[in-house]
Specification:
Largest sheet: none
Radius of gyration: 22 Å
Shape: elongated
Number of helices: 9
Structural class: mainly alpha
Distance between the termini: 73 Å
Number of strands: 0
Number of domains: 2
């Protein structure tokens, strides 16, 4: 059955709205990648190729825009969340796999994660989203290292979660100025000490020289 002219126009408007909404979200994420973590509406609109006045035709308010950007960032990160290992694997292999997976995730999502953490200080919705994401990542770590945690005791678990967190990785990479390779070596060493696995000792010194 052929579409009527009115239906075709409505369908075209709906498509343009969806395209423009997606353009705004991608523009905001691109600004995050550029290191602009709290852009103004003029900057977002310019990046999206739209007028600032039209920006909120597609979003209820700033909170709605940030919620949509956060949802998109989570969607993009999903393929990177999988750890690629399981509880039955040898401890040293699990440590290497977990550290490699987390480093890849944090490298890819770093700009959006920094921006959304900054915005979460003002937006309760984002605080809830961040806590749900943190809880999921902590649960993954607890499940993979369940056999080791059963041996070393529950007091180690919070420290293990911290070592595997985005915040810890950020400190290693940016506060301490380590390369990705050095940061991964430090994470492997720390996790190995916590879990009593000497095979996870670092192979790269903070200077970049082999030990």
């Amino acid at each position: 059955m052929a579409m009527t002219p009115d239906a075709a126009r409505a369908d075209g408007r709906r498509l343009r709205r969806e395209q423009n909404r997606a353009a705004v979200i991608e523009a905001l994420l691109a600004l995050f990648r550029d290191g602009i973590y709290q852009p103004g509406t003029e900057e977002i609109a310019a990046k999206a190729g739209l007028s600032a006045r039209s920006l909120f035709r597609y979003f209820d308010d700033v909170d709605d825009l940030h919620r949509a950007a956060a949802d998109r960032a989570v969607q993009l990160a999903l393929p990177l969340v999988r750890l690629g290992t399981g509880p039955a694997e040898p401890t040293a292999d699990k440590i290497r796999s977990v550290v490699s997976s987390r480093a890849q995730l944090f490298e890819e999502t770093g700009p959006a994660a920094r921006a959304l953490r900054a915005a979460s200080t003002r937006r309760q919705m984002l605080r809830g989203l961040l806590e749900r994401n943190r809880s999921y990542l902590r649960r993954q770590i607890s499940e993979v290292f369940a056999p080791e945690l059963a041996e070393v005791g529950p007091a180690v678990q919070p420290a293990l979660h911290v070592l595997c967190s985005f915040e810890s990785y950020e400190l290693l990479r940016h506060a301490q100025g380590l390369s990705r390779e050095e940061a991964e070596a430090a994470m492997r060493a720390g996790i190995g000490v916590l879990l009593g696995d000497g095979c996870a000792a670092p192979t790269v010194a903070p200077s970049g020289q082999a030990l």
